[in-house]
Write a structure and sequence with these properties.
about 250 residues, mainly beta, 7-stranded antiparallel beta sheet, 6-stranded antiparallel beta sheet, 5 helices, 18 strands
């Protein structure tokens, strides 16, 4: 994993609604950051006071500054020490999209997102984290052979399922199309529809992956995840589960 290259990319860290009056501490690519709000402006600094290296996330928002509670040093939204503008701390790029706060450690490049679905779909967005390797977590999500073992009977049972497989790729993404010769036989099919005939698994750099389920070229169900490398051995997943509204069972929509 090329960490320096990934520092030029946007990653979603928290829901915008999580950010209230107190600073929030997070880690992205091993860099500890503090996210806070000053007069409706969302700001992200390194989580370190330049005086004694105490986490700024333990501090407070005082008027238009963030204050370190250890010795009272205050920093403006420009990452400058209030009493001496020559003393600064690192400031990172922030954008808000799809109700998420996105952070880029190096670049203010255009933010491309993939999580949003149109109004025909019911979407459930959640954030989870786990102890795992960034690359291996993505790989396992997209690997169909794991499903009978890790999620037995959810998508398919241990019986064989024939399919034709094709793949498309470019320098920043790939797509694998599974045209099913046999019906899937798991719980999802029993709940929603038994006629799924195509699965498409896609990946987009730096960390977005999704698996879509189609019947006669109409997408019925999709699980998409934006994988965020927090630090070595720890990954955050921004998960969006989407169903075509006409297929949602009544007990799930109530």
């Amino acid at each position: 994993m090329n960490i320096e290259k990934l520092k030029n990319e946007w990653f979603p860290l928290i829901f915008e609604k999580e950010l209230k009056n107190k600073p929030i501490s997070k880690t992205l690519l091993g860099q500890k950051v503090v996210i806070f709000k000053i007069k409706d402006e969302i700001i992200c600094f390194e989580d370190r006071c330049s005086h004694r290296n105490v986490p700024l996330s333990n501090g407070q928002i005082i008027e238009d500054k963030i204050r370190c509670n250890y010795h009272g040093w205050c920093f403006t939204k420009n990452a400058e020490y209030f009493c001496n503008k020559d003393i600064k701390i690192k400031k990172f790029f922030v954008k808000v999209k799809e109700n998420l706060i996105w952070i880029n450690l190096n670049s203010n490049k255009q933010l491309t997102t993939y999580l949003k679905k149109d109004k025909k779909y019911s979407n459930k967005l959640s954030i989870k984290s786990l102890k795992s390797d960034f690359i291996h977590t993505i790989e396992n999500f997209l690997d169909p052979l794991h499903t009978p073992y890790i999620h037995k009977n959810l998508l398919r049972n241990s019986s064989k399922q024939r399919m034709n497989i094709t793949q498309e790729s470019n320098e920043s993404s790939f797509k694998t199309i599974y045209d099913l010769m046999d019906k899937q036989n798991g719980l999802i099919n029993k709940l929603f529809d038994s006629g799924i005939d195509t699965n498409i698994a896609s990946f987009y750099y730096p960390g977005f992956a999704k698996i879509e389920y189609f019947k006669k070229k109409k997408e019925l169900f999709c699980v998409s995840i934006f994988f965020v490398p927090l630090k070595k051995g720890e990954v955050q997943m921004v998960v969006n589960v989407s169903f075509l509204k006409t297929l949602i069972p009544s007990f799930l929509s109530s």
